[in-house]
Amino acid sequence: MHFFKCVLNRQTDVKMAGYSGSGASIQRQQLETSSSQKSQVAQEELFYRKCRAAYLAVFRSSLENITSKEQLCLVLQQAGRNPSQKRLSRYWTLRTSKLSFDDFCEILKKEKPTEKTELIKAFQKIDLNGDGYITHNELYKVLTKKGEKMTPEEVKDVIALADTNQDGKLDYHEFCKLFTSTADQCQKAALEKLEADTRMRRQQFGSESESAPKNSLTQAVIPSAGTSQKTDLETTPRKADSRPSSRPSSARSRRASVSSTITMGASNAKSVKLAEPKSIQDWHHTSLKGCFFLEEDGGIMSLQYRLHILQTSTVYLTIKPLNLSQAEDKTSSWMSVDTALYIVRENERPEDSDLVCFTELRDKEKFGWKGELSSGVYYLIPFTTGCRLKRKRKIINKQAQLVYRGDNGELVLTKEFRSALSDIFEVIDLDGNGLLSLEEYNFFEQRTSGEKCDEEAWAVCKENFDTKKNELTRQGFMELNLMEANDREGDPRDLWVTLESMGYNRALEMVEACPFVVDVYCEVCKPKMKAVSLESGSKALSTAVYKSVINKGEAKVMKGNDNVIIYTYKSDARITAVIANKSNNKVTVHVNNEQSKNCVSSRGITVFAVEVPPRTNMVCQHVMPVNERQEWTYNCVESLMP
Fold this sequence. Notes:
The chain has 642 residues and is of the alpha+beta class. Strands 5, 6, 7, 8, 9, 10, 11, 12, 17 and 18 form a ten-stranded antiparallel beta sheet that branches. Strand 20 (564-570) and strand 21 (575-581) form a beta hairpin. Helix 2 packs antiparallel against helix 3 (40-58). The two termini are 53 Å apart.
């Protein structure tokens, strides 16, 4: 029961918060009254205002970033939310280093305030005699030994706070009132403080305007898979945004620039196509599935594989999106997402691995490579530019139902939920044998909860759910999810965490993931392939991408600065630019794609800036056609900013 910690934190916040007086209180009341009467725009403004108030109750400025899971938990509690560790792990993954204020606003939209009835329901589970009270000993056992455990000191603080008459029992109805009223007091105090402090408000808004922020998470720069988000500086001014733009005006002189213009024909124009070996049916073959997952911060996560070639041989490798549609005349929505494989030779450190080759040739949605590989161990690193796998903001009119109670009162998975689970099973069944091994299941667990299932837990799983050959069947996977629904008495929130982690929206559509399949054919020996890690934005991938561009792309030296070079690589499907900074100083490169036609950038915007550390190579952007059936023109000007 993590809401106990929320109460402790909020009680401290209420005691420390300063009230700004009746004037600010009247303003707040007027705003809240008008928000219920006006349009949705006014409601959104109130929402963002509350976001700011909660954020500034924890941080001195909205320009500060959240830098730990603990900070994220604290600021969500300040906003009246009660996040579990599983929910927090959804937003703060293993690779998350920071979250901005805009990220926080998007998270807050997904986290609903805790209701009093929900809290009482949780208490009633441990109130065995139903008298509305829980003894201190019972409470101590539950809070220190089950679920998200609290320390003995924290439990003592809770008891001291809640047991006002010191009768040795907790009246949890009164405690729930305390919880909800404390949350309200925290938010009111933060709002009044924000309104009274005009300096803080100007720091937040950048002007007297109080409109919702234009730079929301869905509009933010989406970095490519090989680009570090820490170095991205968005410089595009927004319409109706009164903040001074950091983008240099055209009248401002720049010390150096490079211009590139490439006109590409439609996809049906003549080009070198991927050709399958004629005798491929006689070659040795292995295949594994995987999936690109769009992260909260815009990064892309995917499995990586180890390939063992026993003898020097001609090898044919391909990667393509995996179609899960059961209808013959319809394909999955992600089939247009671009895919690639980078093959690197194993090294002690993955980032030092040598790039051997990558899949350049294409046949419709399939990308491949054919050549000779000597005996040894290689890493296969899947890649997508992010041009077509992007966060999609879609209004869901009706949330899909996941479970319902049958005639006998038992929980049942809906047909739509079972269909989604069946597709998820298809994706995580990497070898396609119709069963889930512990290794396959753990990749699923790592993606959805950040945890792993050990051998003991797997043994319990096999005892309780349908298995075959010591592996979980599709039916067993359904049973496991039904058990989770029963554990929560039909509350679907944890089920939605799983679904959203796998790329589903609330209409049960997979919109933020792209399943794929990797095939390896070897002419003279049986190749061995194994999934080894689930990673996002790895150093090895970044290195492989920029090495491929430097090796095969066109180089242009920045006029006026020989130490900055722009490499541009083009294939039938995409154009990638890399900035090489050979100097001992950091450089900032302004990038302008405004004159490009029928193009989409992995950055999500047409004008931006990239900060490149000394002696560093960095992917600038990937560009693809919006409509492949039409001609597209890449017109990019890179300029050094003073």
